[in-house]
Backbone:
């Protein structure tokens, strides 16, 4: 036999449930009576939630695209860049310093200085015009070694790649990206022909296989020459834009980083690490940095999109105030039949929350649809390896924010309705 206390609780819950059902039904009837006005009222909420969903989805897709490319470098890859590590916008000018030079490469290549070193590639690059017969093409000329072929898993469509002998002899040889070769030679074979780069004749020894658009390294639109050749004959600088190092294994990366820092501080005469004129970046550092940048940009864009939610909330408050005035007689009749101030307030508050909740659901659906369309266009027409990302957090945030706006901006009109005197309300025309 059930206890009277439990039976009493059940009866109380049933009463609350019936009351809630009645409030929702009454609110829905009120909204249904003014469909056009209700639809226009939630428009601001729909636009805001849609924008948040779209921004978060595209942001997650872009972050994943970049991270996939970073991971393709291999966890053993370490990048040394000139200047101290950027801590803010003003520090990015540090990357144009000339602190990485030939003596650093020589020191790093010594086994006694850097243990577990599998490979090293100095990097220089510049946008330069090149030509073949009557065809002219501007592309990034990148000076390097054959290590890049291994790190980025690049494939040759024809010919061969740069060799250690080419680097040593400062040979005038070039490997072209697929798009550069196509623009200069058309359907003719490029390997064996000679092109002119900055007034100097270079023999094409290889053409890279098409790789497709990329976030930070477009292999289809580059021309690769030995870094020694690029320094002496094309770019004319005695320093490097970066040095790419490959550790023998992923486990050896921390030790290699420490050895690199110790070696470069010695060659640069640095005793205080705070005064380093270089910075060393691992794949883990890059992933962390990209995640932070993506988060900051997403939050900034979401905060801008959220402005439309506030505007939508103000619109809901205005419409609800108009609705209270128009339905004064209804309010008076309900109060005359026994409705309390609390009943009236709950009804109008439920209408406001229902409006914003509907707007939130519609916004999530529309934002998801637009995100799918954007992902389809980017992957099928732009050629990026783009994957659709459904931002669950943004969807939950959208629902929570829309409900909060309904409560926040619906509270004042609901209170105004509850304050009305039943006698004066019945007299209202």
Residues:
């Amino acid at each position: 036999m059930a206890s009277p206390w439990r039976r009493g609780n059940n009866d109380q819950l049933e009463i609350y449930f019936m009351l809630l059902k009645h409030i929702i039904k009454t609110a829905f009837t009120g909204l249904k009576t003014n469909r056009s006005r209700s639809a226009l009222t939630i428009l601001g909420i729909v636009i805001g939630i849609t924008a948040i969903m779209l921004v978060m989805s595209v942001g997650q897709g872009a972050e994943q695209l970049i991270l996939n490319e970073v991971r393709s470098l291999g966890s053993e890859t370490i990048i040394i860049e000139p200047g101290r590590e950027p801590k803010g916008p003003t520090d990015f000018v540090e990357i144009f310093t000339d602190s990485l030079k030939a003596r650093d490469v020589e020191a790093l290549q010594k086994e006694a200085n850097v243990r577990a070193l599998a490979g090293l590639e100095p990097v220089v690059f510049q946008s330069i015009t090149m030509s073949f017969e009557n065809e002219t093409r501007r592309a990034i000329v990148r000076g390097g070694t054959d290590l890049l072929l291994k790190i980025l898993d690049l494939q040759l469509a024809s010919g061969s790649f740069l060799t250690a002998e080419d680097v040593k002899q400062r040979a005038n040889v070039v490997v072209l990206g697929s798009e550069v070769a196509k623009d200069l030679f058309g359907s003719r074979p490029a390997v064996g022909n000679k092109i002119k780069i900055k007034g100097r004749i270079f023999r094409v020894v290889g053409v890279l296989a098409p790789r497709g658009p990329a976030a930070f390294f477009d292999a289809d639109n580059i021309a690769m020459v030995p870094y020694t050749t690029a320094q002496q004959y094309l770019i004319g600088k005695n320093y490097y834009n970066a040095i790419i190092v490959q550790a023998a294994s992923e486990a050896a990366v921390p030790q290699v980083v420490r050895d690199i820092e110790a070696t470069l501080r010695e060659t640069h005469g640095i005793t205080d690490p705070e005064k380093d004129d270089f910075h060393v970046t691992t794949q883990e550092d890059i992933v962390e940095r990209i995640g932070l940048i993506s988060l900051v940009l997403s939050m900034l864009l979401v905060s801008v999109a959220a402005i439309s939610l506030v505007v939508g909330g103000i619109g809901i408050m205005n419409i609800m105030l108009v609705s209270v005035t128009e339905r004064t007689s209804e309010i008076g009749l309900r109060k005359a039949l026994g409705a309390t101030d609390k009943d009236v307030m709950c009804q109008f508050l439920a209408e406001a929350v229902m409006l914003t909740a509907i707007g939130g659901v519609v916004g999530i659906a529309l934002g998801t649809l637009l995100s799918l369309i954007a992902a389809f266009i980017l992957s099928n027409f732009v050629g990026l390896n783009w994957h659709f990302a459904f931002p669950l957090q943004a969807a939950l945030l959208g629902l929570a924010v829309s409900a909060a706006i309904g409560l926040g901006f619906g509270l004042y009109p609901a209170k105004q309705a509850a304050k009305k005197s039943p006698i004066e309300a019945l007299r209202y025309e």
